[in-house]
Amino acid sequence: METIHLAVLWDMDGTILDTLDLHYLTWKEAFSDRPTRFSRELFRANFGGNNRSTVPIYLGYEPDEAYYQHVVALKENLFREQMAEKTQLFPGILDWFAYFARLGAKQAIASSAMLENITKVVDAFGIRKYFDALVPGEDLPSKPAPDIFLRAAQLLGAPPARCVVFEDSIHGINAAKAAGMVSVGVAGTTRFAPGDADFLLDDYTQDPAALTSKILALMDSRLPA
Questions:
Q1: How is 32-83 classified by DSSP, letter by letter?
Q2: Contact, 22 vs 82, CB < 8 A?
Q3: Residues of the chain with pLDDT under 70
Q4: What is the rounded distance in angstroms from the CA atom of residue 126 to the CA atom of residue 136?
Q5: Is the N or the C terminus of the chain less surrounded, counting Cβ atoms within 10 Å?
């Protein structure tokens, strides 16, 4: 069996493309029919979680299943309708996808979003060709549980110790750590402090080779003696 030397797991929202404001505005519109605890601050604090975990937080109570399904469907439809016009890939990230592809690394999107959202993004921005797996987190325990990253690693045939996770949320970074993977905190929606992740990345305009060398060195250093 082929030995996987590197697998790259990408979060989507806030990591691959800038969707923070659109998610906030479409949730706000979806909740407009009733009082909630929803605010920009509460939203930012829970960005990166899946709908099943965050909707009760935004509402301030556990909704009945009918309302939950209604409000999620409304919000996600609003998001998908506006996504192509109101979001964009982060500058330079296409170069990173292409670099890892040339390196022979397997890549996956492992996002708390619904699969329909993930497929809409990869097709709208023409990036599906870079990914060997698209892994939604809607039916898995929400980050910081490691389940979504472990599922992605399994689909790629990669041991967790050879996986690196790019994430913009502390929940996602902690999920990567719990999965036994190298973590890269991407600046944007979270103000990471030194030590929060194995590596911190300000943006994708730099050459990916230098960081990749450090990632591979860290992976090698963690191998059992």
A1: TTS-----HHHHHHHTTS-HHHHHHHHHTS---HHHHHHHHHHHHHHHHHHH
A2: yes
A3: 1-4, 225
A4: 19
A5: C
Structure tokens, 216: 């591979």
**Which residue, chain included where needed, has tokens 């060709």?**
129
164 forms beta bridges with 8, 182
Full set of structural domains in the chain with CATH: 7-18+88-221 (3.40.50.1000), 20-86 (1.10.150)
**In the numeric block, which tokens belong to residue 192?**
């990471």
CA distance 22 to 79: 7
Two tokens at 148? 């979504």
Answer left, alpha or beta for residue 195, where phi above 0 means left and psi between -120 and 50 means alpha.
Answer: left
Q: How far is residue 64 CA from its own chain's centroid?
A: 27
Q: What is the pTM of this model?
A: 0.89
Alpha-carbon Rg of the chain, whole angstroms?
Answer: 17
Cα separation of 50 and 175, whole Å?
A: 13
What is the 8-class DSSP label of residue 106? E
Provide the sign of the torsion angle of the four alpha carbons 73, 74, 79, 81, taken in this order.
positive
pLDDT the model gives residue 2: 45
pLDDT at 49: 84
**What CA–CA distance (Å, rounded) separates 35 from 59?**
8
